[in-house]
Design goal:
With about 190 residues, this protein is an all-alpha fold. It is built from seven helices and no strands.
Length: about 190
């Protein structure tokens, strides 16, 4: 038998393993790109958190006002507190010259326009308008003739005097409306 000539060959000489350092230029470019993306994302998220901090604080305050209402059960005070909170939030988000002088229907239009919520011009949003400041006459303040009109003394064509009523405030809806405006207004 003849010896196999391949047995006389030395084993294959393997090259040195590829080292991890220094990386190829493509890896350097990828690393720089990843660092830029992470830095930009971190900056944008941080900026968003800082810019919306007043919204989070206002929502928390709205819930505190609602909890306080459950204790005092005064719907007019609740409407005033919601209005004050909305005004403070608006002053934070918009220039004071634009927001500070607003009241009544102009204030309600502003709230509606800046959030896209039309409910400010309807119930329960009307509770934030000037109706909160209308005086409701008490029984002591009304003249005796208005309290108990006599049928004989009143002409048929004259109507009985009607007493102004306190504006109806749907507290739950007003609370939801306040929180929605805080969350949705365009600053």
């Amino acid at each position: 038998m003849t010896p196999n000539p391949l047995d006389q060959l030395r084993p294959n000489h393997l090259p040195d393993p590829v080292s991890f350092w220094p990386p190829a230029p493509g890896w350097w470019l990828s690393a720089v790109l990843v660092i830029v993306v992470i830095t930009l994302t971190t900056w944008l998220v941080t900026r968003s958190i800082r810019r919306n901090r007043y919204r989070r604080q206002a929502r928390k305050q709205a819930h505190i006002i609602f909890s306080a209402y459950r204790n005092h059960q005064n719907s007019l005070q609740f409407a005033n507190d919601c209005n004050r909170l909305l005004k403070q939030t608006a002053l934070h988000a918009y220039p004071a010259e634009q927001v500070a002088p607003l009241h009544g229907d102009r204030w309600l239009d502003f709230l509606s326009r800046k959030s896209g919520i039309r409910a400010f011009n309807e119930q329960p949003g009307e509770a934030l308008g000037d109706t909160r400041f209308q005086k409701v006459p008490t029984a002591k303040e009304m003249p005796m003739a208005q309290k108990m009109p006599m049928a004989k003394e009143m002409p048929i064509a004259q109507e009985m005097p009607t007493e102004k009523k306190s504006p109806e405030v749907d507290v739950n809806q007003l609370h939801k409306l306040t929180v929605r405006w805080i969350r949705k207004h365009h600053a």
